[in-house]
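Quality-control log, excerpt.
Job 1 of 2 completed; input and output follow.
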Amino acid sequence: MNHVPLSNVRAVADDGGVVAVLTGSGASVFSAGALAATDTKGEGWTSASVIPGADGSPRWIVGVDALGKVEYLRNLSEFEDVSPRYGLEGARVRSVVALGGASVAFVLDHELAIADGKRVTHYPTAPLSQVAGGGGALVGVTTDAVHVFRTTEKTGVSFPLPGVLAAAVGAEGKVYAATRAALYASDGFGGLSLVYHAAQGIHGLVVSGTRVWFADGTELGVLDGGSVAETQGAHVGKDARLASSLSGDVWVLDGGGVLRYQAAIATASEQAEWAASIAPVFARACASCHLPEGRAGFDLSTPVAWSTHRGDIVQRVLVSKTMPPYGSPLSEADRATLKAWTDARGGH
């Protein structure tokens, strides 16, 4: 986790090597973790993103200002208006979303302007919020529904979801959506399936690389390879916003500042130790409920998940013994195995 000492942060764009932090008084550009430039001309930023360059370069960092102009970070030093390059001079752009490949969507109040590297095509749409893109698709939400527009078919589809707050889409085109109570994902059968029950209440959702990050009350959750893990003691604010990174990390914009979080990754030795000592116990006593899409909505099928939820495991399995439910095949010898593993990681 890296701290960026800036205030009044409005947006962050991170292409994996260069990070632009847009504030109320301009922009700061970081390269390889060091401050590379500042630009004080831009004010009133509303959003930022990383898109394929209109000049053929792999990536541009762009921001949208309060007037709805699209500004491109040129030479890692200053922003310039590129709205006319897309035929959007005079238009009020709300956000810019990379869709995968050379395609970019510019979200306006009642339409999408989609550039494919050769032309810009406009499509009428209802006003969308919480817009995101990837895998050749754009997703956004309206009241009680998730809307998906796929560039290859030039058609849209909607998923009814009462209480939906946010949506995101992975590089492979898989759709994710969140209500306050739960996280869902497209299931390949024309619907959304439950992935995770929220512990406190979801209020943010982004895709970063291959990971899906969400804010759950005062904690952060990450869905990585079918496994969900949450932080302990992150103290995320209820109004915090999330921004993605191509690295797979996530930026948390909270209280005018910004923090970067990385997902924990188990080493080869940690994976081997977990597989030898914990996995057999998990298979006997926990797997019926705690697989990635198990009925508990609380995945414990990986060493990272066990490390992340170590405190909960200690309290519920070893102290109060309220888990697993009565009748599950967990012996005192199994509890001793779990205690040895959690004690070795500070889980007293």
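Job 2 of 2 completed; input and output follow.
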Amino acid sequence: MSIFRLITLVFSFCLSDLRGETIQTFYGPLEVEEPVLLELIHSPAFERLQHIHQYGVAYYTKTHTEEYTRYAHSLGVFALLRTKNASLEEQISGLLHDVSHTAFSHVGDWVFAIENQEEDYQSAIHDTYLINSGIEKILNRHGFSGEQISPKRKEFTMLEQPLPNLCADRIDYNIQGAYFQKFITFEEAQKIFLDLSFQEGKWILKQHDLAAKLVSFSLFMTKNCWGSAANYITSKWLAETILQGIKIGIISWPEFQSGIDQDVWDRLSATQDPFIATRMHMLHFPDLYYRLVNPLKAQLFIPFKCRGIDPWINQDGKIIRLTSIYPELEEALQNVRKQSIEGWPVQMSFLENNLQENS
């Protein structure tokens, strides 16, 4: 290689580094110049999220097969924070908030027996995961600490807020999710993204009709995915399968905690272990093993977390709750909250009862 060519390549590399990079997100391209962000986005730990499905086991039981990953979600949260002028620390926090998810996302909550608790497993281990994955070393090289960008920081109110408020995390999984479920079009998703503003500690929307579609979607997903009896039962079955796989050496703890969905699923599917083979059949055909019934006939009741949202909106200069002008949404939200406390009335099949007794 000639000296001239070598100098040209070095100059091009340096110029590229100065200009940064275009990062593609659901909401459009973002120009990113900060070295810390670029190194984090291209780190193995973050890129692993491309292979972790947003809805966990539901992707494999064929109830939610959309190609929506923790990677796309994390970049979506980052895009919201960046375009709405969050601090660099909060942008980093949003980018990394889901990096500690195990394979199959929230199935980890069932594996470690903390399902339906206030803090999920990936949040509980987030700080430790940053260290073990090498992410904290990247942060340290650029003058940041794990504590400095922790999603648990109370100052990061753009990223996290209690229900039923909107927050960057909740906004993205409702917008992208609503798009995939055809509650909104891509154009409507972009309108919501542009319409959003953060003022005096609140995420606010002006387009009431689009806000109402997001509320309806959040209630739909609470009942049919996030809080459904199917999600609870199949997550429990998959957790039992994973624990058995670890026990007999099909997979290891590190492979579950830092691996990818498809790899773990394929290993479990290939084993001849009777317990695992039975559970995998149950996961493929869950409707054969349980059903929702009249509460008087239920063997168990499965409570769930209501993830319904109630956004702040701007109406004639006043900031109010959307449900204050949409009574039908207020009624629907209250009904789901009531159901979440009462729980889903479930009857397990005769076959499932026998399997439980013999396991």
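Post-run check on job 2. Residues 1-16 have pLDDT under 50 and may be disordered.
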